C-alpha cells in the first residue's frame, strides 16, 4: 500500500530503528539526521516516516506531510545555527538519487557553490 514501509529501504530501517542514525530532530511524521557521507560542514537529511519514492510523490499523496518536511528542514537548519543553507531534492537516478525514499538534503556551514549543477 502507498506509504507502507519497504523491507529493502535503508531510510525505512532508520525510521524503525533497525539501522542507527545520528538523529538531530523529530516531529510526529518526520525525522532529521546527519548524512553518513557529509558534503558540507552541516549535511542533514529530513525524511517522512512514510515511504514514497521521492518528494514529489510524497507531496502528491500526502501534502501535509510534505509541508511538514519543509518546515522541519528549516527548523533543523536553525537548530544547526544556519542562516543560509541549501535544500536539495534529488529525484530519479540521473539526478544522483540513490535512496528511493523521499528526503531533502539540508546543506550549509560553508559558502556553497553558486551554480546549481
Ligand atoms: P540521494 O543521493 O539519494 O539524494 O541521497 C541519499 C543520501 O543518503 C546520500 O547523501 C547518502 O550519503 C545518505 N545515506 C545513504 N545511506 C545512509 C545511511 O545508512 N545513513 C545515513 N545517515 N545516510 C545515508
Ligand atoms: Zn523507505
From TrEMBL:
Signal peptide residues on this chain, from the entry's feature table: none
A Pfam family per the record: HIT
Where do we find the motif Histidine triad motif here? 101-105
Catalytic residue positions: 103 (tele-amp-histidine intermediate)
Where are the bilayer-spanning segments? none
Q: Which InterPro entries match?
A: Histidine_triad_HIT, HIT-like, HIT-like_sf
Q: Name any one GO molecular function.
A: catalytic activity
According to the entry, every stretch annotated as the HIT domain falls at: 10-117
Specify the protein name. Histidine triad (HIT) protein
Protein's organism = Kitasatospora cheerisanensis KCTC 2395
Amino acid at each position: 500500500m502507498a506509504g507502507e514501509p519497504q523491507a529493502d529501504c535503508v531510510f525505512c530501517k532508520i525510521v524503525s530503528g533497525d539501522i542507527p542514525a545520528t538523529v538531530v530532530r523529530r516531529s510526529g511524521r518526520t525525522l532529521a539526521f546527519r548524512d553518513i557521507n557529509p558534503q558540507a560542514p552541516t549535511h542533514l537529511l529530513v525524511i517522512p516516516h512514510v515511504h514514497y519514492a521521492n518528494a514529489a510523490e510524497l507531496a502528491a499523496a500526502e501534502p501535509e506531510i510534505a509541508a511538514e518536511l519543509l518546515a522541519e528542514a528549516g527548523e533543523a537548519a536553525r537548530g544547526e545555527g544556519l542562516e543560509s543553507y541549501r535544500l536539495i531534492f534529488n529525484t530519479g537516478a540521473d539526478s544522483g538519487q540513490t535512496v528511493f525514499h523521499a528526503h531533502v538534503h539540508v546543506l550549509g556551514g560553508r559558502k556553497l557553490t553558486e551554480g546549481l549543477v
